[in-house]
Amino acid sequence: MPLRLFFCCLTLLLMLAVQAQDQPDVLLAGANKTTQKYIGAVDSKADYLSGELDKKTEKYLDKLEKQEAKLKKRLSKVDSLAAHNIFANSATQYQAIQNKIKSRADRVLKGSGQYLPWLDSASTSLKFLSNNPLSSINGNAARITGALSKVKLLENQFAQAGSVKEFIRQRKEYLSEQLKNYNLGSELKKYNQTAYYYTQQVNEYKQALDDPDKAVNKAMQLLNKLPAFQKFMKENGMLAGLFDVPQDYATNMTGLQTRQQVQAIMTSQIQAIGPNGQQDVAQSLAAAQAELSKLRNRFPSSKAPEDMPDFKPREQKTKTFLQRLEYGTNIQTAKSNYFFPTTTDIAASVGYKISDKNIAGIGASYKMGWGKDIQHINLSSQGIGFRSFVDINLKGSFFVSGGFEYNYQPMIGSYSPSAGGGRGEAWQQSGLLGISKVVSLKTKFFKKTKLQVLWDMLSYEQVPQTQPIKFRVGYSF
Q1: Most exposed residue of 20, 337, 391, 455, measured as fewest CB within 10 angstroms of its CB?
Q2: Which tens digit of pLDDT belongs to each residue from 405-445?
Q3: Considering the entire predicted model, what is its pTM?
């Protein structure tokens, strides 16, 4: 018996040893696959945003330079000497800032003025992975180096964008001061709008950094479980040395302390001052706030131009084509009559936001038949349809809606005169006009619910005639 027990234990130990040898290989392969996806995702995102930021910066600077040329031309008709003096160095200054950007000059890098958590996490995590054994597998080391260089380039470009924003702000203030005695309001307003939209465009790209894909999320979740990465992130992140970084810094994607942590740090520091420490700090803060208010009143132009636009901004102006698309779906049910069964139109649509509140688009629908009534249910295919639509904001959440549709119903082609009419056309037209009401929903997928009442102006010409009033319920996401 003891001998059998010994052999059983030996067999069990051998099985565990084999499993222990295989398990690291499986884990290593899985980790390497995740690492490769993460490196690829960071590389692609940094490369895309870097190219877009470069392109948009050059575009806006060119547009501002042309607008200054128009200002000079208009001013020349009124005061040629003033036009020559005010715009004497305009072209030179724009060319200089363009050359600095293209040459990646260090003196143009003055900081973006904003901490960007994605850049911090991406840069620090890639540095961590470069010192990890996984970096030597399947050429990861070279890919990490390439991705890290692109992240660094993107970081520099955001810093350059900050310098361009400062350059534009100075030009805006200079022109506003020099041209205040001339009637050039419309042209100067266009210049100010372009300056504002450049700032908004940069902010759009910063917001894009806060929307990581699945590969990035999965990799960061795995890395955050490693104590070594948490320690590396705390010691090598952008905020290291600037703040008393909390222990959960690596797992906090914003990289900042919570309110409770800040209060605890401040309390400990104030207590170290002495018994009257809190009173002394309060007095110092009040004095500093008073001085800051004086400076703001003395130099009102020191506020960033994006804080006080002198026009109503259009949110869609700086969005890409894909970002301006809105997807939706809706359903519509028609009662049965002597010829048609009860049908439900299930439609999908894609709309393009012309402005913040107006949208135009196209869609397609499928018509499903349910039979004559509840006692005679018979599922059938009743046709398809193609749509176009326009929604124009009327007031608040109410819209004027219109559209033109082509609907194909094979049964109509076999419409018999004995049923009460002549032979119908399988393709029928609908001209719709009505009112839509949008109800906001706080859900993850369906952002808005749309209730529509539409009048089909062409229904009276159809053979057989369809119902003129249509009620639809739709969702947008």
Answers
A1: 20
A2: 999 887 665 555 444 444 556 788 999 999 999 987 776 66
A3: 0.67
Q: What are the structure tokens assigned to 363, written together? A: 């869609």
Task: Look at residues 93, 112, 209 and name the one whose alpha carbon lies nearest to residue 160.
Answer: 112
Tell me, what DSSP letter sits at residue 415? -
Question: Dihedrals φ, ψ of 376, to 5°?
Answer: -135, 65
- The predicted pLDDT at position 250 comes to 47
Architecture per CATH, domain 322-476, reads as Beta Barrel (2.40)
- Supply the DSSP string of 137-171, one letter for each residue: STTHHHHHHHHHHHHHHHHHHHHHHHHHHHHHHHH
Domain ranges of the chain: 29-225, 322-476
What's the chain's Rg over C-alpha atoms? 33
Look at the block and give the residue holding tokens 């400076």.
Answer: 295
In angstroms, what CA-CA distances link 252 with 119, 192, 247, 261?
Answer: 14, 38, 10, 13
- Cα gap 57→76, rounded to integer Å: 29
In the chain, count of helices (H) and strands (E)? 11, 8
Q: Are strands 448-456 and 359-371 parallel, antiparallel or unpaired?
A: unpaired
Closest CA to 111 of 158, 181, 67: 158
d(CA 245, CA 234): 7
Q: Can you tell me the distance from the alpha carbon of 423 to that of 415, in angstroms, rounded to the nearest whole number?
A: 5
Closest CA to 432 of 406, 462, 467, 457: 457
